[in-house]
Amino acid sequence: MDDYVFKRIGIVTKGDDATVLRAVDAVLTVLQAHDGDYLVEGLSETTCRARGITRAEGPAVASGRDLIIAVGGDGTLLRAAQLAFPQNVPLLGVNLGRLGFLADLSLQEIATGLSAILGGAFAAEDRFVLRCEIQRGGKIIATGHALNDVVIQRWNTTRLITLHTYVDGCFVHSQRADGMIVSTPTGSTAYALSGGGPILSPGLPAVVLVPVCPHTLTNRPIVLANTSVVDIDIASDHPAEDQSRVTCDGNALPSVVAGDRVRVSRHDQGVRLIHPVDHDHFAILREKLQWGRGPC
């Protein structure tokens, strides 16, 4: 293992189903062949004991690690990013999902691909992260961070919510909608894409605001510099009844009510993604979005 760049590995999984276990076992085979030092998060105590591996919980899987390997789909990788990025640990995805854009080592590629990456044959890519604050009465009541997106959406009501949007202190618009997506380029192929937003190149220093089912059809997605501070004020015609929900990469923050402000800005830290050396973002887009094989 002395010749390997990544020596202390954390593995994050999405559970104990058969497909996940096959992938985890394939990863462990590579690590064990080189006397690797590894921890696993997401498997049951019984499964870990049967395999003789050390189980970690939550952020402990990233503590003192050189690399985190997420075994699952993009959802698992996003959860792993929540654990890895506060500790500046790079992240590699093993893709077991159907429409994943982030995790790019397949089950069949683990044996050769992971060995090559551990030995230093890889491509690294830095992605920025969003910081989200919920402000109430001028005080911050909750914070979160997101590699993909921050989403504001109506929650306990069928009525549209009213959102007043400001960028760097300048008023942009008021709109009635089901919600608003503030997405990074990483998240532009996720919820923002299904909401009609553009696909942003991963390295672009930009965020995109995508309204969710706006009542006024002239409300379109807006692309901004990622240095912008976006403030979205919540309003309602029924403030005593209506609540909205804010999520960061699907993780819920406390409910917001009329008068609350959601502030989204670029986080000081980012996420470093590790890819195979031949990683091709556009090839992934062609495959996942069925754009065709290209010229004959």
Assembly classification: single chain
By CATH, the architecture of the largest domain is named Sandwich
Number of strands: 16
Class of the largest domain in CATH? Mainly Beta
Element string (H = helix, E = strand): EHEHEHEHEEEEEEHEEEEEEH
Shape: globular
Distance between the termini: 44 Å
Number of helices: 6
Blueprint of the fold:
Blueprint: E1 8-13, H1 18-33, E2 37-41, H2 45-51, E3 67-72, H3 74-84, E4 91-95, H4 110-118, E5 122-136, E6 139-146, E7 149-154, E8 161-167, E9 170-177, E10 179-183, H5 191-194, E11 206-212, E12 222-225, E13 230-235, E14 244-248, E15 251-252, E16 261-276, H6 281-288
Parallel strand pairs: 1-2, 1-3, 3-4, 4-16
Antiparallel strand pairs: 5-6, 5-16, 7-10, 7-14, 8-9, 8-13, 10-11, 11-12, 13-16, 14-15
Helix pairs in contact: 1-4
